[in-house]
Here is the input.
Amino acid sequence: MDPIADMLTQIRNAQAVRKSTVDIPFSKLKFEIIKILEKEGFIENISKKGRGVRKKISLSLKFKNKTPLIGGLKRISKPGRKIYVSKNKIPQPKESLGISIISTSQGLMANKEARKKGLGGEVICEIY
Here is the structure.
């Protein structure tokens, strides 16, 4: 019942079998999260496919020497338990090797950008 957790699981499973592309059902929130992953260099490229209810997000995963660039994906805020942080307590996953995606009053952004703008919010997930 959690579409973001389902998206993270699809990416995790595709990397486990070394699949280069993944098709995920479209939603604006998922698309924004994937755009952040592309901006941070975890994903090569993204595109929208289809129309209406059959709309999908197609993304190409990055590999380095046949090893996936994304080491782990973790959902932090869940539908039953939301996790909010202030601007001073934004988490930094895996000793600065990963990112946290934060939902702020100015939209979704990576932890570095939220810290720079001085914004807190809901911690959606961590990627390392």
Summary: The two ends are 24 Å apart (CA to CA). The chain has a mean pLDDT of 94.
